[in-house]
Amino acid sequence: MITEPYFYVAAVPAVILFGIAKGGFGAGLGVLAVPLIAMVVPPVQAAAILLPILCVMDLIGLWAYRGKWILPELRILLPASLAGIAIGTLMFDHDGNLWVGTVGKGLFRIHGNAVEHYDHLNGLSGDSVWTLFEDREGIVWAGTGRMGEDSCR
After folding, report:
1. Helices of type H across 4-152
2. SS3 state of residue 29
3. pLDDT tens across 51-104, in order?
4. Are 49 and 17 spatial neighbours (Cβ–Cβ below 8 Å)?
5. What distance in Å separates the CA atoms of residue 42 and residue 20, rounded to the nearest whole number?
């Protein structure tokens, strides 16, 4: 049982932000939920607290819309959703290179007709890339969730 009063001061707005974001409003405000709670409890514990709440939100949404889907739209949305899950993240750098972070297949840099592949065999700390960022010096950072961040040029 969490007895820290500041936890509830942070948790209630975080859950509300998550709900608004999952409802399609507030754009990316949901990404603030875990850091908000992590100000008062460890980040892993914050994520563990929010995960069951997210699962319940999804179950309620599925129950509310059961039998009301439109098959032609589902045929378009489902493959695109699965592709989005497999790709993980996309980014263009300042040179116009396309960086593709995948789930389980590493990182790809596409420049012109050439494709470079990075994975754990050639220096990437993990094969699932969850985030990409380019700093002011033009260095691309890949967050793999394993051992931190990796830099690529």
Report:
1. 5-22, 33-38, 43-64, 71-87
2. helix
3. 888 888 888 888 888 888 888 888 888 888 888 777 778 889 999 999 998 888
4. no
5. 24
